[in-house]
Amino acid sequence: xxxxxxxxxxxxxxxxxxxxxxxxxxxxxxxxxxxxxxxxxxxxxxxxxxxxxxxxxxxxxxxxxxxxxxxxxxxxxxxxxxxxxxxxxxxxxxxxxxxxxxxxxxxxxxxxxxxxxxxxxxxxxxxxxxxxxxxxxxxxxxxxxxxxxxxxxxxxxxxxxxxxxxxxxxxxxxxxxxxxxxxxxxxxxxxxxxxxxxxxxxxxxxxxxxxxxxxxxxxxxxxxxxxxxxxxxxxxxxxxxxxxxxxxxxxxxxxxxxxxxxxxxxxxxxxxxxxxxxxxxxxxxxxxxxxxxxxxxxxxxxxxxxxxxxxxxxxxxxxxxxxxxxxxxxxxxxxxxxxxxxxxxxxxxxxxxxxxxxxxxxxxxxxxxxxxxxxxxxxxxxxxxxxxxxxxxxxxxxxxxxxxxxxxxxxxxxxxxxxxxxxxxxxxxxxxxxxxxxxxxxxxxxxxxxxxxxxxxxxxxxxxxxxxxxxxxxxxxxxxxxxxxxxxxxxxxxxxxxxxxxxxxxxxxxxxxxxxxx
Amino acid sequence: xxxxxxxxxxxxxxxxxxxxxxxxxxxxxxxxxxxxxxxxxxxxxxxxxxxxxxxxxxxxxxxxxxxxxxxxxxxxxxxxxxxxxxxxxxxxxxxxxxxxxxxxxxxxxxxxxxxxxxxxxxxxxxxxxxxxxxxxxxxxxxxxxxxxxxxxxxxxxxxxxxxxxxxxxxxxxxxxxxxxxxxxxxxxxxxxxxxxxxxxxxxxxxxxxxxxxxxxxxxxxxxxxxxxxxxxxxxxxxxxxxxxxxxxxxxxxxxxxxxxxxxxxxxxxxxxxxxxxxxxxxxxxxxxxxxxxxxxxxxxxxxxxxxxxxxxxxxxxxxxxxxxxxxxxxxxx
Lengths: 518, 333
Fold this sequence. Notes:
The structure holds two protein chains of two kinds. By secondary structure, chain A is α+β, with helices and mostly antiparallel strands. Chain A contains 14 helices and 19 strands. In chain A, strands 1, 8, 9, 10, 11, 12, 13, 14, 15, 16 and 17 form an eleven-stranded mixed sheet that branches. Chain A has a four-stranded antiparallel sheet with strand order 4-5-7-6, with helices on one face. In chain A, β14, α10 (370-383) and β15 form a beta-alpha-beta unit. In chain A, α13 runs antiparallel to α14. Chain A is globular, with a radius of gyration of 27 Å. The N and C termini of chain A lie far apart (82 Å). By secondary structure, chain B is mainly alpha-helical. Chain B contains 13 helices and no strands. Chain B has helices at 2-29, 34-37, 44-53, 60-72, 86-121, 126-140, 143-157, 173-199, 202-209, 214-244, 246-252, 257-266, 270-298.
């Protein structure tokens, strides 16, 4: 008798086959913990973001990933800034005035309710501002707009709120425009899903998959065109662009020109300026001639034309046009390699160690083609006779070079920074990048600090002139930076919707401005 | 069985501990994550408050003790990014990766068995050459490129499938196809090799001489012996898939644990990273046990001693310890 293979009974085989088929069929229906698919719906606008918001906490709405969903959609500020004109316009506050050097009085809009039905009033506004600015929550808006300064809040009546600053602050309304007003909640903890007064409320958030906002039927203002907004996220720009071209999304943010959106990609000025920031107290960058030489050695037009197909333009200063303090008499440094070489030679003749390495540090993927830009800069500065090395670091490491306390034991550093002034006032740029003790400034001067401090006390045209003069002073006497390019963004827009991107679109995508194409 | 499980649990506890300790220490060696979670122009006081709040200024051993104390209470900490429970985030993401990896491996095994068996039946034939080509391609083509090409060709150009996302059955096609190539390429060669060996065994000749069909010879006799090594390799590949699906998850927006881990690494979200690593390590441990059990089920020679049943389910009984089994050959019809 031959021993044969042990048999699986026919019933067992059938069971196994059925189980396998069931697994396949069941798993083919849905992915675990992702909810149901909404499909295509003419009342839904579909937006694809580069990353999922980590939170929708209103006081962190100055973070792009949060603000692009929250700002003016779920929550609203007292004052809104027009991205085109830069003017401050009433929103939850109907008017405001400076009633003393340090005091501002805001008149609030009546008959506004939060999405849970509670009334919006001065007390709620005071709570939100106090929580964002004065608490220990560590709100992003506090760090970005207020720093260490606190504000005092006085509720006069339901529609009147007084805000007092520690020192005269002519741009307090501008700072207030960045505070999103959420319904009163726990003052000691951040909320992930807020309740606001905006035209949309949070419908469902399938973490990792999709976020849905539903229209606020009790919104005090004009109803938006779409009843639902659906956000998804894809880290790859090519995939985001593909979703628009394929009709799976109506808008795709943070694209680059090479992502394949084609005619569906819209260029827009995003207020971002790319520059090389110098460690001006470390040789050889401690010599102004070397910093000037770097400026002369950079072919800015070549960079913007070759890397960005002309969508970006050479930059002349840290702030873009339209920002208070922008100096329209400043032009980009001209490309003059011969002059750059002469300056390096002159510095060398005076004993400046120009042969010591200068490291260009860049944060990986901070903006499109940053790696290529870094290589071009290395080549161009090398032609001027400088010893250039390159270091491209991931974000966490890059920030160690960008923000205090800096990395100071690796020699001279020229860091590629991208700065966006969304606030519309030069003080927000100079306070971060230019004063001697600014968190992202590696050097300055007492004279420059004094100019900036004086400019910050002024208002109106005087403020404009003072900051413009200060920026010219930096250019002529300090050379803290080599300004490279004024960047533009690309948004993918399907033919199914109408939307005109603006300088705020990457940080604040107002759903009410998106309408169905006729 | 229980003894076997007990021994495996005990022997796996130390490696699990080493993995978690290693991730804990290495993650913190990258520095204070404050700069990632505070505004760029946050003041020194804000940074100090953040550091103190999360204990990043404590000595490493103190942080470790605090963490493991929490683990004993099943508290794996909170995400720095979202404030959610790290364990909840990991548990929420893991099933999606398991679904993807499990379905991919199931298909890879089935296809590899079919193609590998076909290739083994006719060495150097067309099927054999195709399988060799696929294996080589699988080893050479990066997942990233394959994913993007798949989107460009099948989603954008042909419009057959969605570009990405998790809505509907068709959204599974591109992610699975992208992940499938490498394990399929490896398995088909394993199955082919094992089948060639099995098909040359005397019992196969005997089966043929008794008039068994080729299909029966392959499926009922040869394949059973070839299954064991394929199972082992499939298990290893499944582990690789669970860990390595991060590229596919990122490109296709698949909310799995691979993407969660890479985001946690980049954002220095230590608690979530540790929870995800621990969960993945435990699942690999369970998977390895299942592989061992499956292997024992297929091959009586590797069952724990004293537990062998009289009737072996493995065809390799013919080639098993001759001192335990006697071969009886029927010489008359």
